[in-house]
Amino acid sequence: MSMLSGGPHPALPQRGREIDGGLRGDALVRELERANLLGRGGAGFPVARKWRTVKANGNGRAVVLANGAEGEPLSRKDRTLMVERPHLVIDGALLAADAVRASDIIFYVGNEHRAAVSAMRRALAERHERAAQRARLVEAPAGYISGEESAAVHYINAGDARPTVTPPRPFERGIDGRPTLVQNVESLAAAALHASGALNGTALFTTSGAVRRSGVYELPPDVAPEAVVDLAGGLAKDVQAVLIGGYFGSWASAEEVWSLTLDSNSLRARGLTLGCGVLYFLPADSCGVDATARIMSYLAGQSARQCGPCVFGLGAIATATRRLAERAPQAEDLARLARWSGLLAGRGACKHPDGATGLLRSALEVFADDFVAHQQRRCITRRALPDHSRVLAEAVA
Amino acid sequence: MAEQVAIDRIRCDGHGICAELLPEMISLDDWGYPIIKPSPIPLRLIEHAQRAVEACPVLALRMTRVSKAA
């Protein structure tokens, strides 16, 4: 059985429990460990280890928080899964609650994903298990960091979707002070399929950019990126580079991408991450500096504005990258970016500065020639200069 | 037991007093926010570290036991 029944197109929603019988409790945790199921929210933490920790900390009063906030701009897989297979997500949450001996389940669903919110509400109303009837659905506010685990817990506890200082981490002290398992909805669905012995290790990918059909695709592990491109109808344009893993992921050059297999371990060995399964194919005629500037501006704007290094550091990075993209840099902008990209990691309450500067470092490497050209007010990708007024202004000056 | 300087990044407002009192362990970035050496505080600096902790106007600084988990 797969996660999305109808491939990229919605199948008829199921009316009730999808997983009957199969592994439960510690036996399921052992199976998840054997299969080395890694979290699909972005960080890729081993699922079995998290479940064990929450169970050990929880003393029978843990909480399961099924995370479907999906604030990642290029990701669609969580909302697609919740719309197409809400019962599978619920099955996974029930199995998790049983395995970690949680007494409460909360489904945390992005409030912009209206179809996912209604699908999950409808599916919950169709369930008769006691734990499902007790479960709550909380709509997550829009924004990149609403889904960060301490922010999710903070929102549910206090209505404030900003990260909190850790420790304590949610698995130690979360909802109402109780140990809380925060687990991405795809991870829960995958766990449910593992319980039934039905999952062959597939994962969900969201592809966009130079492919003919952007969308969410389910693929077995270890596939080559070509397989994703094939499912997405092939390439509409040549590809220059690929953003792998979302805005906290990395750019990889086209040459490198075609030699990869898309599984966590081999990606990690190359310094890349599967993250939340985003694959954005940057067309050969798009400027990597410009694409990176857009991402850095977005991420700087999504800072919770609590920690100085994030507010000012990401702000400065976004501004300098924007000046470079516009071919109007200050003399030291590229050198500053190189320095700042190594200066912010580990210096926020959450990993927002770490993720953003990780992406920037990959950009400085993959688009090294482009950045140098932009520092010299040229663009090697877009030969036709779109902004004639500035060129004229500079020529006159 | 070895100790480390830890900082509450949300409380920290970048006053920079800590870097003045404990320059061996703390420097400031381009925006005036502390960068802390990840190593344990040497014994000879423990008193200075304690003073830096007490001098922080927003109580963002503290000393923690070095643990492997962290």
What does this protein structure show overall?
The complex is a heterodimer of chains A (397) and B (70). With 397 residues, chain A is α/β, with parallel strands linked by helices. Chain A has helices at residues 25-34, 47-58, 77-84, 86-100, 114-125, 130-134, 149-158, 185-195, 225-231, 254-257, 264-269, 288-301, 308-325, 333-340, 352-366, 368-375, 388-396, and strands at residues 62-68, 102-110, 136-140, 180-184, 203-209, 215-219, 239-244, 250-253, 278-283. Chain A folds into three domains: 25-195, Rossmann fold (3-Layer(aba) Sandwich); 203-283, Ubiquitin-like (UB roll) (Roll), CATH 3.10.20; 288-394, NADH-ubiquinone oxidoreductase 51kDa subunit, iron-sulphur binding domain (de novo design (two linked rop proteins), Up-down Bundle), CATH 1.20.1440.230. Chain A has 17 helices and nine strands. In chain A, strands 6-5-9-7-8 form a five-stranded mixed beta sheet, sandwiched between helices. A four-stranded parallel beta sheet of chain A has the order 3-2-1-4, with helices on both faces. In chain A, a hairpin with a 5-residue loop joins strand 5 (203-209) and strand 6 (215-219). In chain A, helix 13 runs antiparallel to helix 14. Chain B has a single domain (3-65), classed as Alpha-Beta Plaits, CATH 3.30.70.20. In chain B, 21% of the residues lie in helices and 23% in strands. Chain B contains two helices and four strands, in the order E-H-E-E-H-E. The chains are: A alpha/beta (397), B alpha+beta (70).
List keywords for this structure.
heterodimer; A: 397 residues; alpha/beta; Rossmann fold; Ubiquitin-like (UB roll); de novo design (two linked rop proteins); 3 domains; four-stranded parallel β-sheet; 9 strands; disordered C terminus; B: 70 residues; alpha+beta; Alpha-Beta Plaits; two-stranded antiparallel ribbon; two-stranded antiparallel sheet
